[in-house]
From TrEMBL:
Highest classification ranks of the organism: Bacteria, Bacillati, Actinomycetota, Actinomycetes, Mycobacteriales
Record-linked PROSITE patterns: RCK_N
Biological process per Gene Ontology, one example term: potassium ion transport
Subcellular location: Cell membrane
TM spans (from-to): 45-62, 104-126
Domain RCK N-terminal: 144-264
Main location: membrane
Protein's name according to its UniProt entry: NAD-binding protein
Bilayer topology annotation: Multi-pass membrane protein
Length: 367
């Protein structure tokens, strides 16, 4: 389907960046460690309070002769409960110096601690929204150089898998999707989530697109991909945009919309299907190269000082290309005959490289 008509559509320029943070509680979700439910929190605090009553009762019973009447343990427990709760009926009172010193230096601090336990439980339950508000505000003030994934379907999840396997922190990835169920899955992985439509400028601003290092556009339809790309490029002129489309005829439209790289999923899958019928092992190797967390992987690195001027074919690594001034030169191109200062190499990295690097580092530390 041709998508030229989309260039005539306006992009929503609404700006929700000025909305108070407490209005974004249902939009942004910042992953945190698992928190106890209010009921379990209250039960735990109640247990602490009960334990404090028992401890004070035991201490009171040890000095049971210092009160207005001889105390049984039940009397001591009763005195501990009514005193810590500040009820104070006055039927049992300390009369000896030791009992009064105990009430001054032990009972009074214990009473304060008892009240803090009860009040703290209530405040903890009632201020959950305030905690989330402060958390979102802190995230918006500190987020930088993150990656935004728009669309958390099969392609979006695979992109996140590759990012995490490549060393990216889950907290540095923001997922935008209109499906709350999908966002719940992303949040369980430790990803920051934003509920909304990625074509909307206000949603992109909430995800801090202007501060993002890159944006991965992986919606279910090509027309949506074009609208998202237009919106992102308008807000973030220098951010890298990588887009996935189904049909190759829409590739040039995405490039005109501002995409830096376009992946045609249907053609890529078709090529692999064709290769699989002739040479299945090639497809297995391609899958291996595209899986950074296992076997082989295509990686990029800065050249070493002793590699300047060398032919990349003669280096220890299996070099596939040279990146110079942001442009890729294949290994068989004339520009890649020698390595120049500032070049970066695309090479085949083996998983064992990481193991040997760690062993070498450990050996140096031992020395």
């Amino acid at each position: 389907m041709k998508l030229r008509r989309l260039f005539t559509l306006g992009v929503d320029a609404a700006d929700r960046s000025g909305i108070p943070v407490h209005n974004l509680l249902d939009v942004i979700s910042i992953p945190t460690t698992t928190r106890a439910t209010p009921w379990s929190l209250m039960a735990r605090r109640f247990g602490y309070a009960l334990a404090l009553i028992i401890v004070i009762a035991v201490l009171t019973y040890l000095d049971r002769d210092g009160y207005s009447e001889p105390l049984t343990f039940i009397d001591a427990l009763y005195y501990s409960a009514v005193t810590l709760s500040t009820t104070g009926y006055g039927d049992i009172t300390p009369v000896t110096q030791s009992a009064r010193v105990f009430n001054i230096f032990i009972m009074t601090p214990a009473r304060v601690a008892f009240l803090m336990l009860l009040v703290g439980t209530t405040l903890s339950v009632l201020t959950e929204d305030s905690r989330k508000t402060l958390q979102i505000q802190q995230w918006r003030n500190t987020v930088r150089n993150h990656t935004i994934v728009i669309g958390y379907g099969t392609k979006g999840r695979s992109a996140v898998d590759a990012l995490v396997a490549g060393g990216a922190s889950p907290s540095s990835i923001v997922v935008i999707d209109p499906d709350p169920g999908v966002l719940a899955i992303a949040e369980k992985r430790g990803l920051v989530t934003v509920h909304g439509n990625g074509t909307k400028s206000d949603v992109l601003r909430i995800a801090a697109v202007t501060k993002a290092r890159s944006v991965i556009v992986a919606p279910s339809s090509d027309d949506t991909a074009v609208l998202i790309t237009l919106s992102v490029r308008e807000l973030a002129p220098s951010t890298m945009i990588v887009v996935s489309v189904r049909e190759s005829e829409n590739q040039h439209l995405l490039m005109q919309s501002g995409a830096d790289s376009v992946i045609v999923s249907s053609e890529t899958a078709g090529r692999l299907l064709g290769i699989a019928t002739v040479t299945p092992p090639v497809v297995e190797m391609m899958e291996d190269l595209l899986s950074p967390d296992e076997g082989f992987a295509v990686a990029e690195r800065q050249i070493a000082d002793d590699e300047v001027g060398a032919n990349p074919r003669h280096l220890a690594d299996i070099v596939l290309g040279v990146v110079r001034s942001g442009e890729l030169y294949r290994i068989d191109s004339p520009e890649a005959e020698t390595v120049e200062p500032g070049d970066r190499l695309l090479y085949v990295r083996m998983k064992t490289d990481d193991i040997w690097s760690k062993l070498e580092k450990a050996t140096r530390d031992d020395d």
